[in-house]
Amino acid sequence: MGKYIGSSCRLCRREGEKLFLKGTRCSTYRCAFDRRSYAPGEGAKARRVKLSNYGLQLREKQKVKRIYGLFEKQFRSYFAKATRKKGITGSILLQFLERRIDNVIFQAGYCTSRRQARQLVGHGYVYVNDRKVNIPSFLVKDNDEVAVRFTTKGQQNVKDNIELTKDRSVPGWLEVDKAHFKAKVVRLPQREDIGFPVNEQLIVELYSR
Fold this sequence. Notes:
The protein has a domain at 100-188: RNA-binding S4 domain (Structural Genomics Hypothetical 15.5 Kd Protein In mrcA-pckA Intergenic Region, Chain A, Roll), CATH 3.10.290.10. The protein is 44% helix and 8% strand. It has helices at 8-15, 25-28, 32-35, 53-68, 72-83, 89-98, 101-107, 114-122, 152-164, 200-207, and strands at 126-128, 131-132, 145-148, 174-177, 182-185. The protein has a five-stranded antiparallel β-sheet. Strand 1 (126-128) and strand 2 form a beta hairpin. The chain is globular, with a radius of gyration of 18 Å. The chain starts with 7 loop residues before the first helix and ends with a helix.
């Protein structure tokens, strides 16, 4: 599977807001968005484009995709699964995204960004119910127990991340034991647990066209 290797700040500039794709580094350092908050590209600063309804829907979808680090095929697959479940499609879509194991590791404070969490999972340091999970898209369930296990060197890296993220609140659907590098899913995430502004209805309208 491919991955985006370009500038994270460029994505934030395109969406017109900080997406904190670098995690705590976005707050610590003055990133490109702070210097150039307009969209990337020649002449973008001078252009004043009023978005159509379709444009608003597209930008909202792109924003959520970039926050979770997904490509279009993956994101569309989550949407298709959400439409097949009973309930509000937009909220179910966000619930699927929150349940990804890389997001769980990020939300627990063991990594400073979802990209870093994806790497930790891919290297085989994450276990769910004592079984190794190295697929970032793995979806946790209610009462699942997640643990990070590593070598001595890796342990220090995670400790450093815990210190960097100590002021970041843990969502209510997770119970975190940072002393033992564990987390438990006490309930499935709900719409109110989403920690960034998103209008998921625009995404539903886009895919329903």
